[in-house]
Automatic annotation (TrEMBL), chain A:
Domain of life (superkingdom): Archaea
Disordered, as annotated region: 1-23
Molecular function terms from GO: phenylacetyl-CoA 1,2-epoxidase activity
Compositionally skewed regions (Basic and acidic residues) per UniProt: 1-14
Entry GO CC: cytosol
Gene3D superfamilies (UniProt xref): 1.20.1260.10
UniProt source species: Halovenus aranensis
Record InterPro entries: Aromatic_CoA_ox/epox, Ferritin-like, Ferritin-like_SF, PaaA, PaaA_PaaC
Protein's UniProt name: Ring-1,2-phenylacetyl-CoA epoxidase subunit PaaA
One biological process term in Gene Ontology: phenylacetate catabolic process
TrEMBL record, chain B:
Phylogenetic lineage: Archaea, Methanobacteriati, Methanobacteriota, Stenosarchaea group, Halobacteria
Domain of life: Archaea
Any one of the GO CC terms: cytosol
InterPro entries, per the entry: Aromatic_CoA_ox/epox, Ferritin-like, Ferritin-like_SF, PaaA_PaaC, PaaC
The species this protein was found in: Halovenus aranensis
GO terms under biological process: phenylacetate catabolic process
Pfam families (alphabetical): PaaA_PaaC
Record-given protein name: Ring-1,2-phenylacetyl-CoA epoxidase subunit PaaC
Amino acid sequence: MTMDIETVKERAGSREFNPTDDMPEEYRKAATRMLEFHANSEIMGAYLERPFIRKAPSIERKLAFSAKVQDEIGHGQMLYRAAESLGIKTREEMLDDLANGDGKFLNCFHYPMESYVETPMIAFFVDGAAMRRQATLKKSSWEPYAHAMDKICFEEGMHVKHGESILRELMNGSKREQEMVQEAFEEWWPRILQFFGPSDDASTHHDFAADVGLKTATNDELRNSFLNRYMEKAKNYGLEIPDEPRIRDNGDGTYEVVEDDLDWDEFFTVSKNEYEGSIQQINGRREAQEAVQWVRNMMDGQTTAGNSPKPQAAD
Amino acid sequence: MSTTNADLGDPTELSEDQQRAVEAQLFRLADDELVQAERYTFWQVRAPTLESDLAVSNNAQDELGHARLWYDAIQQLGYTEESLIYESDPDDFQHSTLVELPFEEGDWADAVVRGYLYDVAEEIRLAALEESTYAPIRDRTDRIQGEEEYHLEHARSWLERMSLDDDASERVQAAIDKLYPYALTIFEPVGDVESDIEALGIRTRSLDEMRADWAERVDSFLTEQGFAVPTDTEPATPVGRDNDHTDHWHSLHEEMTSTYRNLGRDTATRLMDEDDE
């Protein structure tokens, strides 16, 4: 018998539910929405970074970028699997939605990245921010989600180190390199602050996801935790925190970001996939996927016909 | 097979002629692997499925890792990564033109066929280096062979699968017709130093022997899958090995080195053990 919402809320705790539980549709939909968003973000983050595999200025950096992009595709794969286990949507449906512009993903991956000096904005700051959130998801009530986080958090830790290593190198480089990084930082900083979404009183999905234990920390808690650690780090590497958006230090480990200093119209345009960069990123990836549709058709045909020689090896 | 040639000893002990021959062998290995890896990365976040994306990324990283091993061996002879890659003239590279051709978006058949033709050649080449008289080559060969076996199995498995589908078969056949002459350039000489490479036992088989072996294996497997193999064809030009390349290589090199140039760098980052990503 399907568990009722009240029971779900009472029992909600770390890794409490798994596919053997008959969860109510509302829970399954909320969990699917989170997992699909997370998985899509892995794919679109990889798409944004892929040009820098080629442009990285040494073989070792090239290897690190290639490995990072590969990890992200692997995370996407794991998260889609965890999402499928909720029985709401198949992986194909989620990937199709991502290609046709219906799938949602993190705000930071909607902006084009032109220069190598921008790469630590993603690989250090955005991934660092993501780490804060992901660490709390190890206690999510949907066990497959929490389980995926064990591996993902470990690899994300390596990515942040990679980003930090690039930032350190750039900030120890020529004056010109340092100026270019500062400029990139000023451009990306407001987007990074918006990564955590609007402050708690303005967030719409929070209450239910928190009540059923899918989400274990609020936007404000995560933003504070990020600011505590990363403002310090940024300053240590010689970056200047822009005057705006204003960030008030409450002196007790918490901060208030002046919301009016951030462009929420842009944020909501981005989150509807209607921003110029959104369209560019989504369409770029869709075209690449359509170009290899013939391969997927071939594979589907063989699975149905059961005449594939070694399907497990050829993927 | 036992080698009758004396071991060449340490990098510092090489005579001028010996060093010239060792370098010639190392450059073709290093440049092939680097450029093959570089083209593989085209498929990252572009492969048909998440699973094939992961597999192609593995290949790219394996080849990059091999390139690094070969370039390290060259650096023991007094070169730097900067001079070898980032500040090098693109016409100083000696890779075969097979590996520099760009992929057309969606042409997964090209990726599979190219991987297959290259990996068979790679397996044959590595076997001919197992008993090299130059220890840095011998030792690296041993480390690389295991990974190459997996690449070959992967490519063969895709080809078997594609041979069962009419549309895919046509695409594979087109890729074979296009790439076979370019694959032959792998076995072209780098110049008159080639005879020293054999005479000194740096490589234990001649290019002609290796090409014949390659042609037979490729022909036998592909024919079995129902494909036609243009065995009577000549190597494509330019061949690459003689430093003559297609324009595709010049633009690829330009893009690969763009960050290094734009940032005005004079050193390529070595991460060493500081953080092993």
